[in-house]
C-alpha cells in the first residue's frame, strides 16, 4: 500500500513539473509573440515613411522634367 502511495505521489509531482514547464513555455511564446508584433508594427511604420519619402522624391524629380 505504501508503495502505491509513493507511485501516486511521484506521478503527481511529475505532472506538476510538466505543467510548470508548459506554463513557462507558454509565457515565453506569449512574450515572443508580443515582441514580434511590436517589430512588425515598426516595419509597417518604416514602410509608410519610406513610401512618403518616395512620393516626395517623385514630386521633386517631376519639377526637373522638361
Short overview:
With about 70 residues, this protein is mainly alpha-helical. The protein has one helix and no strands. It has one domain.
Properties at a glance:
66 residues; mainly alpha
Task: Give a description of the structure.
The protein is built from one helix and no strands. By secondary structure, the chain is mainly α. Helix content is 95%, strand content 0%. The protein has one helix spanning 2-64. It has one domain (1-66). The model has no long low-confidence stretch (mean pLDDT 94). The longest helix has 63 residues, at 2-64.
Write the layout of secondary structure elements.
Elements: H1 2-64
Q: How many structural domains in the coordinates?
A: 1
What does the overall shape look like? rod-shaped
**Oligomeric description of these chains:** single chain
Largest sheet: none
Distance between the termini: 99 Å
Mean of residue pLDDT? 94
Per DSSP E runs of 2 or more residues, the count of β-strands stands at: 0
* Fraction of helical residues: over 70%
Residue windows where pLDDT falls under 50 for at least 5 positions: none
Count of helical regions? 1
SSE string, helices as H and strands as E: H
Structural class: mainly alpha
Beta-strand percent range: under 5%
Write down the Rg: 29 Å
Amino acid at each position: 500500500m505504501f508503495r502505491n502511495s509513493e507511485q501516486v505521489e511521484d506521478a503527481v509531482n511529475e505532472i506538476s513539473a510538466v505543467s510548470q514547464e508548459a506554463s513557462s513555455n507558454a509565457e515565453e511564446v506569449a512574450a515572443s509573440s508580443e515582441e514580434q508584433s511590436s517589430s512588425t508594427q515598426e516595419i509597417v511604420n518604416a514602410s509608410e515613411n519610406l513610401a512618403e519619402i518616395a512620393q516626395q522624391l517623385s514630386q521633386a524629380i517631376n519639377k526637373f522634367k522638361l
